[in-house]
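Hey,
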Amino acid sequence: MEREIISTSVANLPPSTIGEIQQDHEIWEEIDGGAKLMVTRHILPTPNRDELIALSVSGEPSERQRVIDEFSEVFGEPAQIDQQPQVRNYVDMVAWIKLT
């Protein structure tokens, strides 16, 4: 997926409230190649209103890794990652903190 699509799509997501279930319009869902991804954006209760970008991605392990790598090119090193690259039916969860 192109960097511009990732950055624009995430920037256009309305932020959701941490601790609450996201509304449909607060979730970006996409099928990219052999991966299905879901992304949410949250404003953290910090003085600078830093952001949390959360990605869950399912599919073949190589496709999940590709999507994580593409998002990491845009947002940098993840703050948190729960990944099982060798498990076929796993859903990888990745989070980035974007300081403002």
